[in-house]
Write a structure and sequence with these properties.
Blueprint (H helix, E strand, L loop, with lengths): L1 E8 L2 E8 L1 H16 L14 H31 L9 E6 L6 E8 L15 E6 L2 H13 L3 E4 L11 E9 L9 E8 L21 E7 L13 E15 L5 H6 L5 H33 L8 H11 L5 H6 L1 H24 L6 H14 L4 H10 L1 H23 L3 E6 H18 L6 H7 L9 E2 L17
Parallel strand pairs: 3-12, 5-11
Antiparallel strand pairs: 1-2, 2-4, 3-4, 6-10, 7-8, 7-10, 9-10
Amino acid sequence: MKVTVENKKGLNKDLKILIDKETMNSYMDEKYDEIKGTVNLKGFRPGKVPKEVLKRQFGKAVFGEVLDKVLKDTSTKALEENKIKPAGQPKLDLKTYGEDKELEYVLSVTELPKVDIKSLEGIKFDQYSVKIDDAETDKRIKEIAKNQPNFKEASPETTAKEGDLVVLDYTATVDGKNFKGSEGKNTQLTLGKDLFLKGFDKQLIGVKKNDEKVVEATLPENFSEKELINKKAKFNCKILNVKNPEEVKIDDNFAKNLGAKDLNDLKSLISRQINDEFNNSLDQLSKNQILKEIEKIKVNEIPENLVEEEVKILSQGMPEDEAKKNKKSFEEKAKTRIKTGLILNEFGEQNQIQVSEVEIQNEVQKQLRMMPGQEKMVMDFYQKNPSAVASLRGTVYEEKILNLIKEKAKGNKKEVTKSEAEKILKDAHKHEHNHGHEKNETKKKVDVKSTKENKSPSKTAKSKPELKKTKKVSKK
C-alpha cells in the first residue's frame, strides 16, 4: 500500500491510496479459497470447483465484497499510520478499480485540530469544604426526633387534638353499600397530617376512647375501584385508643434505633450527611468553573463540518427564518461546545480514561433510586434506546475527566460555614438564571471523539453505483 498526503489546506487533507494489482489479486484468491469449500455446483464435488468456474459464477459479488474489505482496512490503516484523527466521516473517491487491476482511491478527510492541554494543570477554580458546627448537627437531630415521636396512652376521658395518635376500626359504605377495602382494623392516624383521606383527620378531633363517630370523605382519584372515584363515602369509626405524643429523648437508645452505635456516632453521621449535601452542589460549582476556564483556552481552528452539525442540533425544531436570524450566535455556541469537547477528549485520551460497563450500570442504578416506583420504565427506556446509553456513557466519561482535572490542578481551597455555603450556591443559581448559563453537552463531546473508531468511509458521487451495495456470495 502506498499512501501520499496531498492538498493540505488547514484541517482538510486528501490521502491518495494505491494498492497494487498483485495485492488485490491475492485478496481475491483468498476469498475464492474461502468460498470453494462451501459452494455446491452441479458436476463438481464439494471443495473441487475450479477457480475459473467460481469466477464466472460469482466474480462480480466476490469483487464487491473484497473491495469493501480492502477499502475499510486500508483507509483505517492509512489514517493511523499518518496519525490523522478524522472529524466526522471521511469521503472516498474511487479512481481505478476492477478485477485484475490495481486499486487507487482518494480519501478526503477533515482532521481534528491539535490541542494543547498543558494549561489544564494550572486551571483556576474554587475548591470548597464546609465546616458544620455542633449547633447545626444538633438542630438536624432534633428535627429527626420531632418527626419520629413516641406516643403514650391517654386517659379514657382525654379528647383527641391535633398531633395525637388515634387508633380505630372502621367500616365504610358508598350509597349504603360496602365495597372492596371498606374495612380497616387497628388503623393508626396522626391527626393533622391528613395522610389517609383529605379532611378525614379534622373530623376526629374531639373524639375519645370507645367513641363511635361517622366520618364522611371523598374517595381519591387513585382509588382502586374506578367506579367509586370522587364518590362520597361514610366511615363508621370505633375509636379504640387515643395516644398523646411525648418528647423523644435524644440519647444512645434513640441513636441505636436510627442505626448508629451511640449518640456521638449519630452526630458524626449527621454531620457528614449535611456536609455531603453541600459538597455535591459545591463540587458541581467547581466543575462549572473549570468548564468556563476551558472555554478560554485557544484552539486555532474548529472543523467546519462539526460546527455545521452542532448548529443543526441547536436550531432543531426552530422555524427557518428564526434559525437564520440566530445562525451567527449558534455558530459561536457551537464552536465553544466543540472546543471544550476537543480539549476534554484529548485530556481523556492522554490519561487513558475509560468507562466500564460496571460504571454504566452503577449510573443506571443511581437513576433507579431517584425514581422509586418507575424502575421498570427507566430500565425499558435504556434497553430500547442505545443512544440514551451512549449519552449516559458520555456523562460518566466527562465526570471522570473533570474529577481528574480537579485532582491534578491546584484549586483555591476555601473552608466555609453552612450559611456561607448556602449564600454561594444561591448567588451561583441566581447568576446562572440571569445569564442563561448553558452546560456543555456531553453527547457532543463524545461525538467529537470519533477518531479511533473510524468507520468505513462514505463514497462520493464519482464512485460507481453498483459498488455501494455488493451482494453476498450465494452458498447453495
